[in-house]
Amino acid sequence: MLSRDTIDTRQVPAAERFGLWLDMVARTSVPLRIRTEHAHDFAAWAEVTELGPIRLLRYEYPSLDAQRNELLVRRSDPEHYLLALTIRGNSSLSQAGRYNAISAGEFTFYDTSRPHEVCHHGIGDDAASSIVALIPYSAVPLSQDRLVPLFAGRMSGSEGIGALLAQYLVQLTSHPEQYHDADASRLGGVGLDLVTTMLGRHLVAEDAVPTEVRRRALLAQVQSYIHQHLGDATLSPQVVADAHHISVRSLHRLFEAEQSTVAAYIRGLRLERCRRDLADPALHSRPIATIAARWGFADKAHFSRAFRAAHDTTPQDWRRRQSDSSRIVNRRASTVNPVRAD
Predict the structure, then answer these.
(1) Its Gene Ontology molecular function terms (predicted)?
(2) Where does residue 31 fall: left (phi above 0), alpha (psi -120 to 50 degrees), or beta otherwise?
(3) pLDDT in tens, 232-257
(4) Disulfide-capable partner of 132 in 38, 57, 118, 119 (CB 3.0 to 4.6 Å)?
């Protein structure tokens, strides 16, 4: 599981909550002057996850208005960019003479080494929520001068690369138990590639993004598409290529560095999903052909051959062995902890 630091102001008395939040922000992000109408009882939480070059912060709070002026910049200049995805609530940002109101599902981007003002308020009884990526200058292969037009801008988190990046950030911060600490740097690298590609596209200067960064970002987009359409029996390299407006040949080149063909990648994912479902006691009564069809194997005989080739056993034998193992475990548990009738 990815390690993370959690700060929950509700663990301390109401009078101390806002002070705890100010300390956390200064320690994990950049010093800010923060005001709120809820200073008397600032019920909020934050989770901080380190992903190699990127620090992810997921916030939830009632409302806040923050300012970083020239004095605070001179006192502490970490030389980071900040990319923020608004999850809930209404937010706004001003920097470099530009102002924008940001709605839920949109990104904004700014430079922490320049003065700026940020506001983010919940709506009604719903708290404000956001995911923030703090990124060092040195990790972004685009010059600062070229990025200035994007400061305090709005970028969609519901289409294209922005949608993929938003899904990626939400998944990582919502389900850290699905990942390992050893993967943190690589996960951060994938996120950084997506961020860089999104910024490049909004600059209408994708050529400024290094070729390898564009390749990895496109690969992540293609793999995400495949995951979402595994159950479609018509999913094929041609379908995947058409969905991303590239040729099948370009798609195959994209996978060359992955030591797998596109078809093998799709088949491997489908077989893994089938293997997982066949081992699930809750699905024991579901026919094997139904499970196979759920994950895109329309022909039962073809599925059986593919499963045997991948796992050196038939689907029936795999399911039976998992069922037997589950019964043995349950029997041992009942023996160790017998239920007594009073």
Answers:
(1) DNA-binding transcription factor activity; sequence-specific DNA binding
(2) beta
(3) 999 999 999 988 888 888 899 888 87
(4) 57
